[in-house]
Specification:
Layout: E1 2-10, E2 15-20, E3 27-30, H1 31-35, E4 47-54, E5 61-68
Antiparallel strand pairs: 1-2, 1-4, 2-3, 4-5
Amino acid sequence: MATGTVKWYNSTKGYGFIAPDDGSKDVFVHASAVETSDFSSLSEGQKISFELERDARSGKESAGRLTVAP
């Protein structure tokens, strides 16, 4: 599982981005991933663990299975 820091998240728009700790490109996170996690929302600067998931239809990657970073 990858770890990173929430760069920004807008609950009104329903998406945001995570900056991975390994320095790779920012990862998109959708509200549906937040809703199915232990989080009610995400806050800028929050450390989280996540898995990269590929959308079968679009082929784009996003963060899923969000958990509190160890």
